[in-house]
Design a protein that fits this description.
single chain, 122 residues, mainly alpha, two-stranded antiparallel sheet, 2 strands, DNA binding, HTH_HxlR
């Protein structure tokens, strides 16, 4: 797969830039959160995030696996069975994801207002 050439290089000295580059896919944070609740099979994850297409969820799971945040175990049985679990680095980011989720819950009304203003503006 050929990666698109970047117009603006990643600032590798900035932790925020690195985090954005690795974790800010549309569903990656959700996937990490749900896998953090326990070992998950792909079908379970699709049920947890029904608005996400299977293709996108599978692509983001593959990316998280390649980047070392989750590990995948495939059981040689009919039908094949796959399970995802967090790795050490995946567990280490879970408190941050939980804190962001809690902050979003605690500031829900403000965030909804901001989003609605943006949608109405467009």
């Amino acid at each position: 797969m050929r990666l698109k050439e970047r117009k603006i290089p990643i600032q590798q000295e900035c932790g925020l830039d690195l985090i954005r580059e690795v974790l800010f896919g549309k569903w990656k944070i959700h996937l990490l959160y749900y896998i953090g609740q326990g070992i998950m099979r792909p079908g379970q994850l699709h049920k947890e995030i029904p608005e996400a297409s299977r293709r996108v969820v599978n692509m983001q799971l593959k990316s998280l696996e390649e980047d070392g945040f989750v590990s995948k175990t495939i059981y040689d049985q009919k039908p094949l069975k796959a399970e995802y679990r967090l790795t050490y680095i995946g567990f280490s980011v879970l408190p941050i994801i939980t804190a962001f989720g809690n902050w979003g819950d605690n500031n829900r009304e403000h965030l909804k207002r901001v989003i609605s203003q943006k949608v109405n503006f467009l």
